[in-house]
Amino acid sequence: MLARAPLRMTRTPLLRAMSLSLIIAALVAIAGCAAAKPKNATDYFQNAESMFRGGAYGIAIENYREMIDQYPFGEQTEEAELRIAHAHYLNDSYIEAIAAFTDFQRRHPTSPFLPFVGYELGMSYKQQMGTIDRDQSAARSADVYFSAVIAQYPDSPYAELAREEQIACRDSLAEHELYVARYYAQKGNFPALENRALEVVGRYPQSNSADQALYALGKLYEESDDRRRAALAYAALLQDHPFSARVPEAQTALQHLEISEADVGPAARQALLTAAGYSARRNESGATVEVPGVLKDDRPFAAPTTGIGYPPPAPAGSGGPSGARPAPRSGSGSFGPSGD
After folding, report:
1. Are the C-beta atoms of 144 and 169 separated by less than 8 Å?
2. Which DSSP string corresponds to 142-189?
3. What are the φ and ψ backbone dihedral angles of 289, each rounded to 5 degrees?
């Protein structure tokens, strides 16, 4: 009787692939079981920090929240809440950042991180600013928060950063007022033009649009035979904006009016606003501005005098500690009462 040859099992490529997949799955399962779970709040925080510094902001937020859930009264809970808000901002989730920073203010009214929180709230609104022909709510909100940081924490490095960022906000707000004034000029609504131009001169005197507003007022008053106010507007342009492209025209206009800058006096802008019926009040930063039809408000701005920033700020003008990008804005052109 012939002996049977032993059966030989041959592995097909499919079988080999399936075996390899099972081995890999088993190794992954073993590694997962062996992975050490965070033992304490510090471990949780360090894991989240690693994700945060690596730019994985969504995962970092989840880890910070898990740490807070496990250790709601831990020493690092406050900082974790702040990191969550900051991660939202760095992830361009500005609505979520505003909600988180505002909640942090409510939970920690005496936190040393409040200068940073106020600054980041301003930046969260600033990043949502649109062009000058759009609604300016974001720019106004940013301006308010920057003003609060400047007034409440003048010794904080974030106060200087807020001043730098506030310039762009107020330029946008002023350009918007001038944009609307130009529309009224084209429609022949000169009282509305005057109100908008005076708003720029009174509220945003250092903006890039203030010289254009003064020139428009000068032309408006000149065409209305109001020589005194026209001279005040042109003189204010020369005094406050000596490098403006409108300077030669303002000088020529004064010569035509036969009124010299010396005849007007050294405070032409203030004299113009007074002549226009403006009254002074304090704005959000505590600085005096002239606003039409509002009585003077001398209430003090009660606030702490020092603050501790977080994290260390970048040099002024560099976009702040978060690498903030400037919002796009369109420029304003020149115009007069006739829309030229």
Report:
1. no
2. HHHHHHHHHHH-TTSHHHHHHHHHHHHHHHHHHHHHHHHHHHHHHHT-
3. -130, 160
Contact 232, 210 (CB under 8 A): no
pLDDT at 85: 97
- Are 189 and 173 contacting, i.e. CB atoms less than 8 angstroms apart? no
HEC string of 77-124 equals: HHHHHHHHHHHHHHCCCHHHHHHHHHHHHHHCCCCCCHHHHHHHHHHH
Q: How many CB atoms lie within 10 A of CB 46?
A: 14
Instruction: Report the distance separating Cα 313 and Cα 44, nearest Å.
Output: 26
3 state DSSP class of 40: coil
| Cα–Cα distance for residue pair 251/76, rounded to 1 Å | 63
Structural Rg of the chain based on CA atoms:
31
In angstroms, the CA 217 to CA 230 distance is 7
At 17 the three-state DSSP class reads helix
The angle at the Cα of 148, spanning 140 to 291, to the nearest 5 degrees, equals 55
Can you read off the two tokens belonging to residue 315? 């040099």
Distance between CA 163 and CA 97 in Å, rounded?
A: 21
Q: What's the pLDDT score for residue 260? A: 81
Tokens 């065409």: give the residue: 223
Q: Which two tokens stand for residue 340?
A: 């030229």
Mean per-residue pLDDT pooled into runs of 10, the chain (340 residues): 45 50 46 58 90 95 94 92 97 97 96 96 96 94 96 96 96 96 94 94 94 96 94 95 95 91 86 81 38 29 30 38 35 38
Token pair listed for 296: 């003077």
> Which two tokens mark 48?
């989240």
Q: How far apart are the two ends of the chain, measured CA to CA in Å?
A: 117
Sign of CA dihedral 240, 243, 245, 251: positive
Cβ neighbours, 10 Å, residue 14: 8
CA 327 to chain centre: 9
DSSP 321: T
